[in-house]
């Protein structure tokens, strides 16, 4: 392919991508729901931490 044609196609595609990016930037994006995710995560971690703090059960030694 001739370099001038390749460059022209590249500029055209770059312009298309810039238009798509600008259109995407104008769309309203919902705020991330990190608060719920954080609460759920700690709710799942808390029981595991409680289990880890308990001493392991020891079997009775028979003499």
Explain what the structure shows.
The protein is mostly helical. It has helices at residues 3-26, 34-53. The model has no long low-confidence stretch (mean pLDDT 86). 0% of the residues are buried. Helix content is 70%, strand content 0%. The chain starts with a helix and ends in a 10-residue tail after the last helix.
Topology, pairings included?
Elements: H1 3-26, H2 34-53
Summarize the entry for a quick read.
This protein is an all-alpha fold. It has helices at 3-26, 34-53. The model has no long low-confidence stretch (mean pLDDT 86).
The count of DSSP E runs of length 2 or more, i.e. the number of strands, is 0
Order of helices and strands: HH
Describe the global form.
elongated
Low-confidence residue ranges? none
**How many strands, what sense, and barrel or not for the largest sheet?**
none
Q: Kindly, what is the distance between the CA atoms of the first and last residues, rounded to a whole number of angstroms?
A: 89 Å
State mean pLDDT (0 to 100 scale).
86
Number of helices: 2
Strand content: under 5%
Approximate helicity band: 55-70%
| Gyration radius over CA | 30 Å
Q: What structural keywords apply?
A:
single chain; 2 helices; 63 residues; elongated; mainly alpha; 70% helix
